[in-house]
């Protein structure tokens, strides 16, 4: 099966079935990561080297196994498609953002706050309707890069082992990559490796958002605003995405009881329920563009 058809098959499976409701492989991986963290970072005393060793034990054997299985005739192709399906988060993002949108549309702010709290790590209890819409739109743009475009990128570049490497590294960054007393040293490797693996995909995602939205504004926001953001990869993605949508995102947010003054991203009016719809559409159209380009590449090289 060609690369394009394998990519299409994985995306179609995600669209049809989404995440497993009973057991997801990343749940089991999360348990393994918790055990490794308790072993190598007891009482938060783990060093950078301990974090790198724990990361290696969690990620490298599974990546190697995926690489070996991917070489098997026929079964390897099927495995690659299933790995891509398991790693993609497109339908999941839609399923998590839809309750927020529906609550905002019926004017139920409390339900919207509860729904968006499942998407973001910031404190949502005091958000107004605009703040809820802003947080949801930011999540769609940023997680669209991490859980969708980066997954597609690594599948194209390195097949199943590339997807496994990226998805597990991204999961460990979400678990360990915090600048807290417990994880500042131990989680350093997880955070830096995830930054490295997402560097190119994030910029391709930002370019995709720009091309499919208000292109000039998106590129200008990317150039001027992204360097102000604290994440080297989220900055380009969210600045370009906000510019493509023609809205203002970013701004102050409360995390773990502490108010953080984040830069403003994008330009235009404040976010509202329509921004969530537009961000979701932008993400879907981006995936269709990537699929079309890969399928076109297959046809040209046939």
TrEMBL record:
The chain crosses the membrane at residues 52-70, 147-169. The keyword Transmembrane helix applies. Its main location: membrane. Pathway: Cofactor biosynthesis; adenosylcobalamin biosynthesis. It is a multi-pass membrane protein. Keywords: Cell membrane, Cobalamin biosynthesis, Membrane, Transmembrane, Transmembrane helix. It is found in: Cell membrane. Belongs to the CobD/CbiB family. Converts cobyric acid to cobinamide by the addition of aminopropanol on the F carboxylic group. This is Cobalamin biosynthesis protein CobD. The lineage of its organism: Bacteria, Pseudomonadati, Pseudomonadota, Gammaproteobacteria, Pseudomonadales.
